[in-house]
Amino acid sequence: MPRINLLPWRAEERKKRQREFAFAAIGAVVAAGAVTLLLSLIMAGRIEQQNERNQLLRTETEKLDKQITEIQGLESQRQRLIARMEIIQKLQRSRPEVVHLFDQMVKTLPDGVYLTSVKQSDKRLELKGMAQSSTRVSAFMRNIDDSEWLDKPELEVVETKKDAALGSEFTLFANQVGVQLPGEDQQ
Length: 187
Fold this sequence. Notes:
There is one protein chain. This protein has 187 residues and is an alpha+beta fold. It has two domains: 9-95; 109-176, Gyrase A, domain 2 (2-Layer Sandwich), CATH 3.30.1360.100. It is built from two helices and four strands. The chain has helices at residues 9-108, 134-146; strands at residues 113-121, 124-131, 150-160, 168-176. The chain has a four-stranded antiparallel sheet. α1 packs across α2. The protein is rod-shaped and about 175 Å long. The mean pLDDT is 84.
């Protein structure tokens, strides 16, 4: 006779599978939670590390900006000092020019001519004076043209006075020639 098993084995098998499934599901949820926690910790660490790098870059950028500002200030100060040095050197070079100018004026002034006024604007001279005749003014202009410290004489006015004893009144312009160093332009 055939054997019939009347025990509820299917129900026990089902309960066993349900328990295994529950353990597997709980294990999967725990594993997924652990992986998620691990990944979030890794990402948080990377974000923190990147924030530290960004902060380091910000502080270094601020330091460099301060240094750039200081360098620009020093550069402008350097330019001002160079300009001052050039002015001082120019004044040092032009110091003996005044002596040469007056010496040349005395040498170029012919007999019968005397100056009443001398004005200088930069290198341009305005000479006003009296001469016994117009020919003496012409001689004065030739002497200026031949001078090594004066050049380019330009006669503006020669006015002959009615009284012959006074002679002619004149206004004359000339340029002062200075010592030129290499790199300077002749004006």
